[in-house]
Write a structure and sequence with these properties.
Blueprint: H1 9-18, E1 26-29, H2 36-42, E2 48-50, H3 51-57, H4 71-90, E3 94-97, E4 107-109, H5 113-125, H6 137-154, E5 158-159, H7 162-170
Parallel strand pairs: 1-3, 1-4, 2-3, 4-5
Length: 173
Amino acid sequence: MFYVFCDGEALLKKFQEGYGTHPKGFFILAPSGSGKTHFIKNQIKNDWIDGDDLWLAAKAEPENEWWNESLDKINEVEQRCDVITSQAKKLGFWIMGASNWWLLPDAIVLPPWRVHKNYIIKRENNNYDGGAKSDTFLQVMNHRKYMQGIARKNKIPVFRTVEDAVTYLEKLV
């Protein structure tokens, strides 16, 4: 597939109608199965966007299970997602997602591994909606190590829950 940049006004309008914008945009990075989608589906006010929804709508993410592709393909998708996330942040959107290549997140969520595994197993066995499964625990652990490295190197705050990261960032506005 060949990608080009184009005017995204129609997509922007769609997200502005569904989600609030803020004086400052944020991006929370969290691995698959860490509670992002659960939080977003249960938020009282639509402040936080599921990055997958944004990236799919912008066609940065393909509709297949691209995270099971080669590392080159994964990196390509995550770079496209970073472009969309950086633009959305500039417009005051708050985004949560697992895709990241070069854009530094404002916060990272890493639940304790025992809790994280249980989240993945529960989702896998009840209403699976995509993402990591128990047979990809090694991939999830590697993604967590990658995120820990980003946090250490760039002094990005790490939280055990999505709720704690959200509370921290909302106080910065």
